[in-house]
UniProtKB/TrEMBL annotation:
This is Sphingoid long-chain bases kinase 2, mitochondrial. PANTHER family: SPHINGOSINE KINASE, SPHINGOSINE KINASE RELATED PROTEIN. InterPro entries: ATP-NAD_kinase_N, Diacylglycerol/lipid_kinase, Diacylglycerol_kinase_cat_dom, Lipid_Phosphate_FormReg, NAD/diacylglycerol_kinase_sf, YegS/DAGK_C. PROSITE patterns: DAGK. The lineage of its organism: Eukaryota, Viridiplantae, Streptophyta, Embryophyta, Tracheophyta. Keywords: ATP-binding, Kinase, Nucleotide-binding, Transferase. Residues 69-215 form the DAGKc domain. It holds the Pfam family DAGK_cat.
Amino acid sequence: MKMMTCHSFISPNHNYYYHHQNFYFVALGRGTSMAAASASPTPVLRSELKSVEPVEQDLQTALNFVSSPRHRDLVFVVNPQGANGRTGKDWKKLLPFLRSRLGNDYNICESFTTGPRHAIDITREAIREGAEAVIAVGGDGTIYEVVNGFFCDGKPVASNNKENLKATALGVIPLGTGSDFARTFGWSNDPYAAVERVAKGMRSRVDVGVITGPTGDQNYFINVADIHLSAKAGFYASKYKKFGNLCYVIGALQAFMSHYNQDFRIKVNEGEWEFCPQVTALCVGNAKFFGGGMKITPNADPRSGNLSVVILQHFKWYDFILNLHKIYSGTHLKVKNVSSRSVNSIEVEDISGRGGVYIQSDGEHLGFLPKKICVLPSAIEMIC
């Protein structure tokens, strides 16, 4: 079981330990310290632990406190290494304001990721423990992992407390390099505004995309999944994060050096196979932006129940350069050899014989074709 550091567990006039996720947390105003682990599922008075000096006890106050509903957890999943370490530094600056704004109503729980896929495990555990929300603090890569944590073995993760009727929500505090998902909703990169959204607690159901491979392996995404050139560009861009959003343009140019347009076949909404020649890139958007602000799927809406597919064909490197400003503005759908359609599902196979066609989502390399991509309408609740 993972450990989360919780803050702002406040009991008026008294200091109590509360058994939470196999640890005791002592509430001393704001901020907590951790004491000895215990198997007891009930709150205990401070004097019952030998390692702590006894304090004044008021049994009736303690009973009243125990019988009242405890605050639910807000679990903040922080990638401290995001944006070349800037995410961790910005989080430290934000935390005092966040505690003061949210600490009276929720337990504030920090959980720092230590490597790839760690956020997935943290999210699953938080949902099973009945958290109010799991909030991704970082860039689109952190959001990607948190979204995947909402699912396990092809099913949504559920709370172990069957009496908990309120689903755990997804929240976002954009502190990463790209923060493209936030752009779809018109959110700025202001983390203080994001905290205010959490405080208001407004929720909305959003769709999620699921990518399935030939062996049945599944990956979920909430932003954009892309195939071939753009996916390879994302792979290279990850090596240039120190240049900020410029890393995506550098990655695209490097990807073009070894790029060949390839013939695909696609199947839309379980229909017939269609020949799709000389594909440069195929993008499937649940949201609108990728690559540090490129509005690649401008018709996408994460509350529509559909995915937006944009296909670029027969592009040369100079076509990409000449039309880059249109891709950023979302006006590229009128460009020659660019097509768009709305789908519930799409299957994509490479029939060129070259192989090695990349697929990725939000900087996460997800292998190679063939793949099937479907929408899960209204799959999770999101704080908006």
